[in-house]
Write a structure and sequence with these properties.
alpha/beta; six-stranded mixed β-sheet; globular; N-carbamoyl-D-amino-acid hydrolase
């Protein structure tokens, strides 16, 4: 019996620096309502969905920097989103900047959560693969200071049971690293939710930057196929404060095929009926890890190349 999950990717157009949380939450609610109207049970929002992409600037005033982070979730500003999800009976993935204080020390993470159809948080993930630099490079219109404003996630790549399947999360640059998908794949993941904010000038190299959208899809399609999982990639896109960001949000099947794609760089909802059993065809044949994967040989090869010391 197929396990169908009606899923939406809710792409966002630009968020201005002056936009309030209330403004942004109203946009998220409108797309959530549209997704529910199309019969969806789950909606995936972007990375840092509550604010403009602030790591593009050097922000030296700590109070200003703190204003971009959430210290609780839900907060007073985001509570309407949770309440509407519970009213509609729809779950969601949300990316945001998280600030926690531990032992009197501020810790900052690029975070996402899964919320079930009752409005309850059932999973949290913190971005592991942070791109960019900790110090400004200078000589460019925009910086990419994620390493300055976030620390690497400390929760690993967990999976969560919900929506009738095994669900996982990743954020933006995580999609480029095969271990992101493989760690979840080894846990039987059936759908990976992935929000991103990807500028066209992140490589500062015209040849590389011209391939931004190609590489975006390439990495998600490869991760989906090689781990027999659905991948829902949702962008924040368009011209945001002068920075051009890529869109083309997609829903990718375990076959690696794109089954739905956004065609604007504005707020746009795309949907697909995702059969969570579709990945079983690949998990029991080509990508049957137990039968075909040979991790013991990987270390042997690396030892022989001298990349790591021989095992005792």
């Amino acid at each position: 019996m197929p396990r169908y999950l009606m899923t939406a990717s809710a792409q966002m157009g630009p968020i201005a620096r002056s936009e309030t949380r209330a403004d942004t939450v109203r946009r998220l609610i409108a797309m959530m309502q549209e997704a529910k109207g199309r019969g969806c049970e789950l909606v995936v929002f972007p990375e840092l969905a509550l604010t403009t992409f602030f790591p593009r600037w050097l922000i030296e005033d700590e109070a200003e920097l703190d204003s971009y982070y959430e210290t609780e979730m839900p907060s007073a500003a985001t509570r309407p989103l949770f309440d509407e999800a519970a009213r509609l009976g729809i779950g969601f993935y949300l990316g945001y900047a998280e600030l926690v204080v531990e032992g009197g020390v501020k810790r900052r993470f690029n975070t996402s959560i899964i919320v079930d159809a009752t409005g309850r948080i059932v999973g949290k993930y913190r971005k592991v693969h942070l791109p960019g630099t900790a110090e400004p490079l200078g000589g460019r219109q925009f910086e990419h200071l994620e390493k300055r404003y976030f620390e690497p996630g400390d929760l690993g790549f967990p999976v969560f049971r919900g929506f009738g399947g095994v669900m996982g999360m990743a954020i933006c640059n995580d999609r480029r690293w095969p271990e992101t998908y493989r760690v979840m794949g080894l846990q039987g993941v059936e759908m990976v939710m992935l929000g991103y904010n990807t500028p066209f000038d992140h490589g500062n190299n015209q040849c590389m930057d011209s391939l931004t959208l190609f590489h975006n899809h390439l990495s998600m399609q490869a991760g989906a196929y090689q781990n027999a999982t659905w991948v829902v990639g949702t962008a924040k896109c368009g011209n945001e404060e002068g920075s051009r960001m890529g869109g083309q949000s997609v829903i990718v099947a375990p076959s690696g095929e794109i089954v739905a794609m956004a065609c604007t760089v504005e707020d746009e909802v795309i949907t697909a009926r995702c059969d969570l059993d579709m990945g079983n065809t690949y998990k029991t044949t080509i990508f049957d890890f137990a039968r075909h994967r040979r991790p013991e040989h990987y270390r042997l090869i690396v030892e022989r190349t001298g990349a790591i010391p021989p095992s005792e």
